[in-house]
Write a structure and sequence with these properties.
It contains 13 helices and 18 strands. 33% of the residues lie in helices and 22% in strands.
């Protein structure tokens, strides 16, 4: 057998060390020790970590890199961000949205991020952003799996044309049904929006991803309704609740019931650590709420839990890097997930767990799956998060699409080594 590509001496996230991975026709064909397979191209991983690509399960690509348009969010608050987006929407052009989105995708590739679920606002009657991101989806298809969510940002029932526009967006080819029940005018309207949107998804055979309970309010309980409607219309395993930050304010008795209902409905949870801890808790003095959902408790109940980046340099969040390891690091800190197994779980929350939510086929380092990899300058997943490890190679379907030189710093110090490589500071090194 002749392989197109072979990775030698690789460590894999599942704990296997020093293995070779042979790839042919864009697929993994063999994994094992010291494979004697000729290959057109060979990469010596040198005991570095080979991971499947990073996956961002929650993003807003229609707004990315728009920071400063038409002005800065000087307060850094959610409300000013919402106001800014309202000011920016009439000024958007398809060309500008496409250009910024493609530029962000370049950054994503450099970070080993090859699958993104992006919400797209449908509350502009022009559906300008929808058309723009559908075009971006086509253009990036050779290197990024881009999944789009029809998101009625101003409220499915609150905005006069949102219902019609959501249907139009789905008819155009948007992949997932979205909603924002906590932003409707009443709790009853929020519940009604969930019912209607879940019925819409069931009728069309689509997945659901709701901005749900992005609030400090313990009485914002739309995730309960989402779990109920998931079961009522038979969407088990196809529904995600994003944010769910009200759960950090709920009493434990109610949560003990709620999480059981979510598990029964097979609803997934998507936390967004960077923006959640920035935007939530803003009405508190002290004690201040952390702004994140109950990640350890949800995981313990068997739910699929992923981390998303949400925003990069847009009206709501002026920071962001496209680096899912930054997201994983913030998640583990704020959720106090510091056991060795918990840290590994945080790596999973930006790789295989969001891949499940998106329903990605052929994902993961197993024979028969797609030859999609990130080679990281780290020995294992824990070290990768600690260092926000350098991406040495990014590979899509067996082809190198990005590479970065080994990171090191030259020292000019008497009687000390002439260089420092951060990955050599790992335990046991």
């Amino acid at each position: 057998m002749q392989a197109d590509l072979i990775l030698k001496n690789a460590n894999i996230a599942n704990g296997q060390a020093g293995v070779d991975i042979a790839c042919s026709n864009g697929k993994i064909v063999e994994i094992g020790q010291n494979l004697n397979i000729p290959a057109t191209e060979e990469i010596d991983c040198g005991g570095m970590l080979v991971s499947p690509p990073f996956v961002d399960s929650h993003f807003h690509m229609d707004a990315t890199l728009s920071l400063g348009l038409p002005r800065m969010n000087e307060s850094g608050t959610l409300l000013e961000g919402i106001a800014l987006w309202g000011e920016l929407k009439p000024l958007l052009t398809p060309e500008a949205v496409i250009e910024r989105a493609l530029k962000y995708c370049d950054l994503a590739v450099s970070k080993g991020l090859l699958a993104i679920r992006s919400h797209v606002d449908v509350c502009d009657d022009r559906l300008l952003a929808v058309d723009a991101l559908l075009e971006v989806k086509k253009q990036v298809a050779p290197y990024i799996d881009l999944q789009l969510v029809a998101f009625p940002q101003d409220g499915y029932l609150r905005s006069k044309t949102a219902k019609e526009n959501t249907i139009r967006a789905l008819d155009k080819g948007v992949d997932v049904v979205g909603g924002i029940p906590h932003f409707e005018r009443t709790m009853a309207d929020g519940a009604q929006s969930i019912a209607e949107l879940c019925e819409m998804a069931a009728d069309r055979g689509l997945m659901v991803d709701m901005h749900c309970d992005e609030s400090d309010d313990p009485l914002s309980r739309h995730i309960e309704m989402l779990a109920y409607e998931t079961q009522r219309v038979g969407l088990q395993g196809r529904v995600a609740g994003s944010h769910l930050t009200s759960m950090h304010s709920m009493d434990n008795y109610y949560v003990s019931k709620l999480i059981a209902l979510m598990a029964e409905a097979e609803v997934s949870a998507i936390a967004n650590p960077l923006i959640n801890i920035t935007l939530q808790g803003r009405h508190d003095t002290y004690p201040k709420r952390r702004g994140m959902t109950r990640v350890p408790e949800l995981r313990k109940a068997g739910l699929t839990v992923a981390f998303g980046h949400d925003c990069v340099m847009d009206p709501w969040y002026s920071m962001g890097s496209g680096d899912m390891l930054e997201v994983a690091s913030m998640g583990l800190h704020v959720a106090q997930m510091t056991s060795r197994d918990d840290i590994r779980a945080c790596f999973d929350a930006v790789t295989k767990e969001p891949a499940k939510i998106l329903g990605l086929e052929g994902y993961g380092i197993e024979v028969g799956n797609n030859a999609d990899f990130v080679i990281l300058q780290a020995r294992d997943t824990i070290e990768a998060i600690r260092m926000r490890a350098n991406r040495l190679f990014v590979i899509r379907r067996g082809k190198i699409i990005a590479e970065t030189p080994m990171a090191q710093t030259r020292l000019h110090l008497a009687d000390r080594p002439d260089h420092v490589r951060e990955h050599e500071y790992a335990p046991g090194q």
